[in-house]
Amino acid sequence: MQNILIAGASRGIGLALVRAFLERGERVHVVVRQPGNEALKNLAEQHPQRLNLIVSDLTGDQAAERIAAALDAPLDIALFNAGISARQTIEDVSHAQIVELFLTNAIAPLRIARALSTRMANDAVIAFMSSQMGSVELARSAEMPLYGASKAALNSLLRSWSRAADRPNACLLALHPGWVKTDMGGDNAPVEIVDSAAGLVVSLDAHRGKSGCYFVDYQQQTLPW
Ligand SMILES: NC(=O)c1ccc[n+]([C@@H]2O[C@H](COP(=O)([O-])OP(=O)(O)OC[C@H]3O[C@@H](n4cnc5c(N)ncnc54)[C@H](OP(=O)(O)O)[C@@H]3O)[C@@H](O)[C@H]2O)c1
Questions:
Q1: What's the pTM?
Q2: What are the phi and psi torsion angles at 129 (to 5°)?
Q3: Which CATH class is domain 3-217?
Q4: What is the mean pLDDT of residues 180-202?
């Protein structure tokens, strides 16, 4: 049985990944910022002993310590999924919104991953939910430039870590889940949540035991940085 951490899993793609890993028999450590999530309660009842619920806002000062304290086994996969969208322009975004966006989408995930990197098993994967909008080369974030910039910042921090003296032994992954029918992706999105999650599980599994840093989507295609 593998130990999987999904950080940011109250709904959407994160929740679907929790369900997918539980269904194939793994133990899943789930980080959400609010207690009392009905879907997770039901999953915990269906899969006794295999869902470890950790309540923490990922942007909180004590998030890394709180998550580390709740882990009782080395992690085979850690996925930092939480993210927020941003439709403002550079002109109309407030400083507080900029801080929240970049803290949630780029800084907090890397900060927590770095703190947990000594808690990973051999052959582990540390993954982050990025977006094709974070690809500077593809330049697909004209409609949401600040969101794209926050995911580009995530990718940049990830690549920097992969070249730093304190890089982890684990494989580092930036993931694009597709344009997915969630609260964030909206009803017009072409990809169903279960299909995105199923593809992401394949992408995660395929990188166990590898070294280096990769940017791939839910169909195992490599994206340019
Ligand atoms: N949907 C798409 O088409 C698409 C495309 C490319 C990339 N992505 C990325 O994929 C990831 C998941 O997206 P989604 O579509 O599933 O989004 P979603 O339905 O809006 O869900 C976002 C999740 O992130 C959690 N979250 C946000 N901020 C958090 C914080 N500070 N602490 C803890 N949890 C936090 C939310 O928890 P609460 O319920 O507490 O708010 C929720 O569980 C995001 O990183 C997103 O940027 C999505």
A1: 0.98
A2: -80, 105
A3: alpha beta
A4: 98
